[in-house]
Amino acid sequence: MKTVFSGVQPSGTPTIGNYLGAIKHFVDLQKDYRSFFCIVNQHAITVPQGKQELQHNTRSLAALYIAAGLDPEKATIFIQSEVPAHAQLGWMLQCIAYIGELERMTQFKDKAEGRSGVPGALLTYPPLMAADILLYGTDIVPVGEDQKQHLELTRTLAERFNQQYNDIFTVPETKIAGNGARIMSLQHPDKKMSKSDSNQKAFISMLDDEKTIMKKMKSAVTDSGREIRYDTENKPGVSNLLTIYAISKNISIEEAEQKLSSESYGSLKEETGAAVADILVPLQERHAELMASSELDEILDQGAETARLASSKMLAKAERAMGL
Ligand code: ADP
Ligand code: NA
Description:
With 324 residues, this protein is mostly helical. The protein is built from 13 helices and five strands. The strands form two sheets. It has a three-stranded parallel β-sheet. The longest helix has 28 residues, at 295-322. It is globular. It starts with a strand and ends with a helix. It binds adenosine-5'-diphosphate and sodium ion. The site of adenosine-5'-diphosphate has 21 residues, from helix 1. The site of sodium ion has 6 residues, from strand 2.
């Protein structure tokens, strides 16, 4: 059985971008793969997080994974910092990564730009991500498009290690979601939707209630003209809504276009908001139940134990290969 690994940062509440581009696919993949889905809290601290907020967001993200359909019987769900092998192998991979290739990462450039006191870990975070993945002999990594470059680096580091030390790592494949791979900001459809956007209206969080979802959709930026057509170049706002609608309804973009082409922008927004709410409202009920239960903590304890065991062999091999 092949192995899948992926993660989401608890740096806020996940958005529908995280859901449609990543989490939804985790749920589909867990049936056919040996599955590891991580809450990558050590990645989140590459930018300052409030202590209590981080703890809350970590638990909440785990509950969202499960509420979205990840099944602890089929997938190992765990918190990164509870499995020390990640940081250990991350360090070793930092030792073989070049500063030049880390500086070329566009996410580093974006996050570091105009900032004084840039944390060193903003630069060295991709080798940690490589460690997350390589520890489990991962074959595929489902991610949104923004992670493509980091995954390329993961492959490079795996190949370099295999060549310089010992051929131990599986070189993983990147699995970018079809349509949901890049959900755009509702306010700036030329920018990706992100949970760390300072403008709350730019994203719909997985925990926004129905009223908020409808309100944010209503204020989504659309384009000039009034035609509803999928055309990312000339109609990025409308195309983004069509994409969100289509994936939420499990239909193709063409079908969504046909269904909505005679509508106004106003009803496109309303229909898209309703389609999103149909998914999120029941999921939020399950999330609330999990947050109030000790079941969640038991799942995470069990997940950490499974992940520690599963990663220990690869860590030992890597240490032996490097002479540690
Ligand atoms: P964020 O940028 O929102 O903080 P993360 O870095 O935690 O997100 O990414 C978690 C997963 O969600 C990754 O696989 C990432 O590619 C995916 N993702 C993030 N934003 C989007 C988006 N706007 N559209 C599609 N996928 C996304
Ligand atoms: Na599985």
